[in-house]
Amino acid sequence: MIEILNSAQLEQAADTGALVGDILHTLRQRSTVGTDLLDIDQWTKDMITEAGAQSCYVDYAPSFGRGPFGHHICTAVNDGVLHGRPHHYTLADGDLLTLDLAVSRGGVAADAAISFLVGEARPAESVALIETTERALAAGIAAAGPGARIGDLSHAIGTVLTEAGYPVNTEFGGHGIGSTMHQDPHVPNTGRPGRGYPLRPGLLLALEPWIMADTATLVTDADGWTLRSATGCRTAHSEHTIAITDDGAQILTLPTRARA
Length: 260
Hints:
Layout lengths: L6 H24 L6 H14 L3 E2 L18 E4 L2 E3 L13 E10 L2 E10 L6 H19 L7 H14 L10 E3 L6 E5 L16 E4 L2 E3 L5 E3 L6 E3 L5 E3 L2 E6 L2 E4 L9
Helix pairs in contact: 1-2, 3-4
């Protein structure tokens, strides 16, 4: 299903997106050395509930997972990159933490992810991974607009990733979003320009470049959810929800402080 939102729905999407951005910003500030991943999940639950919103993850039970996810946010550390299921783990200096959050409010969902280093340590490889996904995300957004095709966005994202020397996995990528978290069209993190679904004003897309340092192969944890690099290398993931407008694309999941 591909949804095209009307003006009222787009206003709600901007509201939900700001909430997602603000929660992620707060969690980034609070996630320090000694923080437990289960505390992050509880903080997320509290902020979502206070905002009168709903997590898209608690009851999420796709074919690739093991039953309902049962938590409010995805927390992946170091070699974990996607669908990280919160568990008892205390963050250490230099850990690379990825937080992926999808929330629904007023009938419209928004989805975003950030990767960052905990504490004071700044391993060069980890910094490069994070910066590359952020640059790839910016390139994908810059390529978006009415008349562009999904392949144009995929090509822009993939060019940044491959030119930086990283393998690209195409099992999971970006997606349409609207009244539900995951919709068509699928947005692979590499592709051919000029191909695929043509973008229209009112379409929401969640773009999410993610990479692993030296492999394109994923393995699944015993929890049935957390996806890790097959080699144990570090990973990074950046994501924004955008709305296609009459003259380009609007990022919906920036924190409120970044909108001034």
